Amino acid sequence: MLEAVEVSKKYWDRSSGRQYDVLQSCSLQIAAGEAVGMMGPSGCGKSTLARVLLRLLPTDSGRIIFQTQDVTQLSQKQLKPFRQQVQFISQRPESFFDPLLKLGASLREPLQIFDLPDSSEIIEAALATVKLSPALLDRYPHQVSGGEVQRLSIARALLLKPKLLILDEPTSMLDISVQAQILQLLKNIRRQEQMAFLFISHDKAVINYMCDRQLYMQEGRIT
Ligand SMILES: Nc1ncnc2c1ncn2[C@@H]1O[C@H](COP(=O)(O)OP(=O)(O)OP(=O)(O)O)[C@@H](O)[C@H]1O
Q1: d(C-alpha 139, C-alpha 104), whole Å
Q2: Residue ranges of the ABC transporter domain (predicted)?
Q3: Would you say 198 and 31 are in contact if contact means Cβ atoms under 8 Å apart?
């Protein structure tokens, strides 16, 4: 379903004025419906790899293949089907929501962008999946809790019927009891929707609970 072939990336180090390797020949494969965990120490490049796989950051070399199509160099217009089918759940879900828009309007936005059916029933069904009340639709992002905003970002992703979720430490900002609820929710959704996951976490117990297999990253390499 998603394959990275020898993906490499450098960042500029402003203090030394030099480039340094953040991803070095990273290759991985995620099959349809499979949950793959990605672990590794802080700063080893996991979030960068997630953003490169999502085509949010360009690669320096290597290829990203989604469902047999090479998406590495596709234009934003050509990427539209990919943008619908591969969704991102971040450790900072509030960044998905415009602080000036009510949450209902923010949830509708992607449906309009992707020309998908948009109705109150569809939005309320997505909210029910993540166990949230429709009353939240009338609020602004600062008027909900951290756990609720993460549930809303999951609902936002689910509305697009993705085939793959890339989750970057999705519960690291939440307290333990809310973490457990969100993990359980994600596990149930994955089973129901038969989605694939790339699940990034530094927590081995979380990866063991959520994933079929795990990869390890160290200093920009998948080992
Ligand atoms: N835009 C950027 N420009 C330059 N360096 C960056 C940039 N983003 C991240 N880095 C650096 O690249 C390295 C990898 O960062 P990245 O966020 O991918 O690691 P990570 O494994 O996800 O870390 P964590 O587990 O702490 O989130 C780090 O040294 C980080 O400081």
Answers
A1: 8
A2: 2-223
A3: no
Q: Is the CB of 4 under 6 A from ligand 1?
A: no
CB contact at 8 A, 155 and 189: no
Q: What is the pLDDT of residues 102-150, one digit of tens each?
A: 999 999 999 999 999 888 889 999 999 888 999 999 999 999 998 899 9
Q: How far is the CA of 11 from the centre of ligand 1 (A)?
A: 9
Ligand 1 center–CA 62 separation, angstroms: 19
Residue 47 CA, ligand 1 centroid: distance in Å: 7
Looking from the CA of residue 220, the nearest atom of ligand 1 is 14
Residue type, 159: L
CA distances from 33 to 6, 100, 117 (A): 23, 36, 25
Q: Which amino acid is at 135?
A: A
Question: What number of helices (H) and strands (E) belong to the chain?
Answer: 7, 10
Domains and CATH numbers, the chain: 2-222 (3.40.50.300)
Residue from 24, 44, 200 whose mutation best tests the ligand 1 pocket (most atoms within 8 A of CB): 44
φ and ψ at residue 221, rounded to 5 degrees = -120, 145
Rounded CA separation 8/129 (Å): 38
